């Protein structure tokens, strides 16, 4: 049974927990994807969740709960966005671990995301998250405007588990404290997640290519760092 990145269940357009991005065949004249009566786009769902947050902070657990049964696709996007835009300080540092855990769960075939209590209780500023969505929403809408169902053969149980592997590798790259190791893989994961939710095989392929290039850069940086450290140790201690 496929991991629940997509859904065929009926939805309630007023409840962000039951909203999902669905394929669309037309595009608004202003370049954004239309929102049919039965669903809302990814960007609209993210906006609804953040706008309805209560208080000055929101926990990771509350964010996941708000997305409901279709949380995998949305949380991968949400927790990758801070590394794709000029996010306020303090956000990007806490998003890598959830993506790592989600990736493992998807590879194992889990249908719903789960996080340990100490991760779910971590909180971030609602105002910072709203600012993040304000920055990212126009870019997401533009990307959504190009989406339509293509190459359905790429979307299956195996395909969803490949997304999990990709998310796992992206999270490892994000957690490495080197310049440039988080942006390309993270933006690729956003593209891949939207592609899976929209069942757009062309966009999925593009996301994987961008991600592989970013991960190759990460491996190169790690290799260069290893050789520099080894050379330094040899110079100082004769190792």
The spatial strand order of the largest sheet comes to: 1-2
Per DSSP, what share of the residues sits in E-state strands of 2 or more residues? under 5%
- Mean pLDDT equals 78
Oligomer: single chain
Q: How many separate helices?
A: 9
The poorly predicted ranges are 7-38
Let me know the largest β-sheet. Answer: 2 strands, antiparallel
Name a few traits of the molecule:
239 residues; 2 strands; globular; 56% helix; mainly alpha
Provide a quick synopsis of the model:
This protein is an all-alpha fold. The protein has helices spanning 42-51, 60-67, 71-80, 96-107, 117-120, 126-144, 157-175, 183-198, 201-237, and strands at residues 57-59, 123-125. It has a two-stranded antiparallel sheet with strand order 1-2.
Q: Would you give an account of this structure?
A:
- By secondary structure, the chain is an all-alpha fold.
- The chain has one domain (16-237).
- It is 56% helix and 3% strand.
Helices and strands, with pairings:
Elements (H helix, E strand, L loop, with lengths): L41 H10 L5 E3 H8 L3 H10 L15 H12 L9 H4 L2 E3 H19 L12 H19 L7 H16 L2 H37 L2
Antiparallel strand pairs: 1-2
Helix pairs in contact: 1-6, 2-3, 3-4, 3-8, 4-7, 7-8, 7-9, 8-9
């Amino acid at each position: 049974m496929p991991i629940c990145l997509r859904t065929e269940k009926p939805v309630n357009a007023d409840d962000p927990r039951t909203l999902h991005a669905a394929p669309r065949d037309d595009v608004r004249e202003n370049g954004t994807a239309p929102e049919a009566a039965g669903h809302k786009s990814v960007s609209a769902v993210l906006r609804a969740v953040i706008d309805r947050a209560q208080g000055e902070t929101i926990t990771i657990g509350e964010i996941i709960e708000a997305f409901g049964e279709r949380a995998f696709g949305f949380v991968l996007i949400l927790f990758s966005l801070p590394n794709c835009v000029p996010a306020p300080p303090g956000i990007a540092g806490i998003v890598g671990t959830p993506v790592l855990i989600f990736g493992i769960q998807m590879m194992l075939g889990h249908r719903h995301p789960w996080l340990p209590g100490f991760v779910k209780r971590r909180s971030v500023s609602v105002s910072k998250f709203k600012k993040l969505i304000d920055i990212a929403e126009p870019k997401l809408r533009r990307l959504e405007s190009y989406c339509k169902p293509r190459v359905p053969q790429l979307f299956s149980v195996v395909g969803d588990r490949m997304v999990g592997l990709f998310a796992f590798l992206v999270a490892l790259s994000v957690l490495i404290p080197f310049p440039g190791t988080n942006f390309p893989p993270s933006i690729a994961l956003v593209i891949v997640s939207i592609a899976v939710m929209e069942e757009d095989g062309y966009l999925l392929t593009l996301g994987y290519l961008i991600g592989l290039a970013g991960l190759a850069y990460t491996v190169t940086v790690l290799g260069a760092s290893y050789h520099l450290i080894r050379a330094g140790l040899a110079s100082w201690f004769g190792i």
